């Protein structure tokens, strides 16, 4: 069982320690002065239960760090903080964690139950108390009298929890949870062109993705990806890309099936550097030198054919010529043979 103990004082450490000794995954939350020694030296419990030293228990002094490192879901939460900390700790807990876990208060002092009821819901707290009292051997009639709920409801509650676990706390007829936090609002992205930027605003999170209008390929890839994720419809993406709706749909399918190369503008895409890896460029240079030294043609078609025969590389003639120009190779074609002859004469 994964257990979070809110409060690493005497009560929290003892309960957390013995639960960890029973091979439960226990996380302690408390002040630095309590947590640091536990993390460095382990937890030692001494007293009427004997002497115990535990090293399989972890502690944190920050709830956000617990959520990042251990996750937001726990099976059981023990509330052992001082009464004056109950409200602040529980408010932070509700905002940070999945609140479907059973919360058990092991506190003394007045007002704790009222705070817990207010933050987690009175009905849930009442049901948890009823079931806890039942497990302790209290009769249904005494539970009914103490909590002012019908005896039949106590019987139904016990049966529901025994049959369905935590789901037994909920009324099966209602869709809304009485103790789980409401679902977050659905993120609705919007498109806007502003100051030479295409901005994708993700509401209500206030996140903004900015794409330069001068980067058409980046804009096309991002928007078509969002379309394929059903965050935008074709009309919106088509308008932003200045394409027809039909063309936009075809490009979206190509992106899914063929990756980026399927959606590039062929007139520009063939000249993109990322289509020529360093290894490809090395083979191109080598083939150019071979043909130039042998005084054979070094046109795009001839080099494409040779590269396919020698290296099984399929490259377009236009792309080859573009990269030859970028590398400045045509300007040294005629001098290659002369330099090679000179090297042979003067080794």
Please give the number of β-strands: 10
N-to-C SSE string, H for helix and E for strand? EHEHEEEHEHEHHHHEEEHHHHHHHH
The major beta sheet can be summarized as: 5 strands, parallel
Shape: elongated
C-alpha Rg (nearest Å): 35 Å
Strand order of the largest sheet: 5-2-1-6-7
- How many helices? The count is 16
What does this structure look like?
The structure is a single chain. The protein is of the alpha/beta class and 347 residues long. The chain contains 16 helices and ten strands. It has helices spanning 10-21, 32-41, 63-70, 86-96, 112-120, 122-135, 140-147, 151-164, 216-228, 234-241, 245-258, 266-269, 278-293, 300-311, 317-327, 333-345, and strands spanning 2-6, 25-29, 43-47, 50-54, 58-60, 76-79, 102-105, 188-194, 197-203, 207-212. It starts with a strand and ends with a helix. The model is unreliable at 267-274 (pLDDT under 50).
Describe this structure in a few short sentences.
By secondary structure, the protein is of the alpha/beta class. The chain has helices at about 10-20, 30-40, 65-70, 85-95, 110-120, 120-135, 140-145, 150-165, 215-230, 235-240, 245-260, 265-270, 280-295, 300-310, 315-325, 335-345, and strands at about 1-5, 25-30, 45, 50-55, 60, 75-80, 100-105, 190-195, 195-205, 205-210.
């Amino acid at each position: 069982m994964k257990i979070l103990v809110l409060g690493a004082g005497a009560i929290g450490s003892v309960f957390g320690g013995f639960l960890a000794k029973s091979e439960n995954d226990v996380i302690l939350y408390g002040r630095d002065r309590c947590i640091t020694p536990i993390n460095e030296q382990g937890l030692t419990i001494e007293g009427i239960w004997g002497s115990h030293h535990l090293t399989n228990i972890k502690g944190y002094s920050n709830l956000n760090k617990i959520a990042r490192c251990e996750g937001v879901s726990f099976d059981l939460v023990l509330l052992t903080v001082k009464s004056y900390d109950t409200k602040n700790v529980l408010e932070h807990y509700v905002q940070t964690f999945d609140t479907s876990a059973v919360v058990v208060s092991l506190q003394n002092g007045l007002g704790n139950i009222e705070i817990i009821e207010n933050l987690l819901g009175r009905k849930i707290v009442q049901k948890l108390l009823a079931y806890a009292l039942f497990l302790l051997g209290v009769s249904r009639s005494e539970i009914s009298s103490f909590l002012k709920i019908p005896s039949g409801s106590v019987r139904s509650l016990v049966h529901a929890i025994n049959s369905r676990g935590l789901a037994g706390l909920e009324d099966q007829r209602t869709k809304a949870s009485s103790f789980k936090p409401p679902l977050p609002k659905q993120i609705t992205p919007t498109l806007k062109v502003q100051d030479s930027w295409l901005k994708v605003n993700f509401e209500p999170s206030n996140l903004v993705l900015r794409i330069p209008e001068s980067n058409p390929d980046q804009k096309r890839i991002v928007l078509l990806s969002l379309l394929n994720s059903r965050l935008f419809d074709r009309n919106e993406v088509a308008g932003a890309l200045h394409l027809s709706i039909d063309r936009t749909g075809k490009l979206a399918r190509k992106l899914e099936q063929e990756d980026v190369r399927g959606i590039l503008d062929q007139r520009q895409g063939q000249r993109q550097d990322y289509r020529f890896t360093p290894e490809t460029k090395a083979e191109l240079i080598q083939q150019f030198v071979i043909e130039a030294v042998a005084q054979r043609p070094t046109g795009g078609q001839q080099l494409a054919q040779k590269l396919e025969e020698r290296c099984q590389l399929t490259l377009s003639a236009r792309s080859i010529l573009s990269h030859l120009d970028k590398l400045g190779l045509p300007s040294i074609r005629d001098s290659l043979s002369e330099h090679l002859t000179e090297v042979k004469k003067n080794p």
